[in-house]
């Protein structure tokens, strides 16, 4: 997987601005796998999607994953750093396509389309039921799902696709509160893309103002050469 050029990164950012987070995740995948149709990427299990996005992050931004959050107990801001390779390796393998059998029913793993279908659900239980029914293979007869059944299906899916969700164990140094928080890999990487795109636009603005160069001319310069020109402008 190759790193995106600044031109490609700006185009990706611009296309993703009006989109929902789920759609942005597929755009990021499309940038990493330009030969693969978007419809096919949307069918990838969530773990495979997250693993590929983490790989692209490592290629474009390096291995370190830096972020921050707030303690839910006292509000203290906490900074954390993770090794991107931990996400990229996952369980070491892409989740199997074999159906997940629970009782007499079989299920596939959830994908981005399934997340999109429950994005507007205000009721958590309704969202879980819709997700499970989306993944149900075979008969689509109406089922009165019990909490126990839903929990077991969710647990089996999580065991099969370990990269589908990343949970962080955090502790506050101020109040000693400990908690778990979910890290959305796609949203995190999108924020990195957005920050880099805005930085590149600032560079273009200064260089165009100082030298009268077109955007395409500035983007054709290497990052190191752009930095040297910016130093001379400031100096």
Put the structure in a nutshell.
The protein contains 11 helices and 7 strands.
What's the mean pLDDT score? 90
Discrete helix count: 11
Measure the end-to-end span: 38 Å
Overall geometry: globular
State the domain count. 1
> Which percent range describes the beta-strand content?
5-15%
Helix-strand sequence: HHHHEEHEEHHEHEEHHH
Structural class call reads: alpha+beta
Tell me how many strands there are. 7
Taking pLDDT < 50 over at least 5 consecutive residues as the criterion, the unreliable ranges are none
What summary fits the major beta sheet?
Answer: 3 strands, antiparallel
Cα radius of gyration in angstroms: 21 Å
Helicity, in percent?
40-55%
Placed side by side, the strands forming the largest sheet appear as: 3-4-5
What does this structure look like?
This protein has helices at residues 6-16, 21-32, 38-42, 46-61, 84-89, 112-118, 124-135, 147-160, 185-211, 215-220, 223-234, and strands spanning 64-70, 77-83, 100-102, 105-107, 136-137, 166-171, 178-183. The chain is an alpha+beta fold. The chain has one domain (6-198). The strands form three sheets. The protein has a three-stranded antiparallel beta sheet. A two-stranded antiparallel sheet has the order 1-2. Helix 1 (6-16) packs antiparallel against helix 2 (21-32) and helix 2 (21-32) packs across helix 4. The mean pLDDT is 90.
């Amino acid at each position: 997987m190759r790193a995106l050029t600044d031109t490609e990164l700006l185009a990706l950012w611009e296309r993703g601005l009006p989109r929902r987070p789920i759609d942005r995740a597929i755009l990021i995948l499309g940038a990493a796998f330009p030969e693969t149709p978007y419809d096919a990427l949307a069918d990838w299990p969530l773990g495979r999607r997250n693993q590929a996005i983490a790989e692209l992050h490592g290629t474009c931004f390096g291995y370190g994953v830096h972020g921050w959050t707030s303690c839910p107990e006292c509000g203290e801001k906490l900074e954390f750093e993770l090794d991107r390779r931990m996400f990229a390796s996952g369980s070491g393998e892409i989740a199997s396509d074999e159906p997940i059998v629970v009782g007499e029913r079989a299920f596939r793993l959830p994908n981005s389309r399934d997340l999109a279908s429950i994005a507007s659900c205000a009721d958590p239980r309704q969202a879980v039921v819709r997700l499970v029914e989306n993944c149900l293979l075979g008969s689509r007869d109406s089922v009165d799902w019990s909490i126990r059944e839903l929990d077991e299906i969710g647990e089996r899916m999580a065991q099969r696709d370990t990269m589908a969700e990343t949970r962080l164990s955090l502790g506050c140094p101020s109040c000693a509160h400990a908690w778990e928080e979910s890290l959305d890999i796609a949203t995190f990487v999108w924020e990195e893309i957005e920050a880099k795109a805005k930085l590149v636009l600032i560079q273009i603005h200064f260089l165009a103002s100082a030298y009268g160069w077109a955007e395409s001319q500035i983007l054709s310069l290497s990052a190191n050469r752009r930095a040297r020109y910016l130093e001379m402008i400031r100096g």
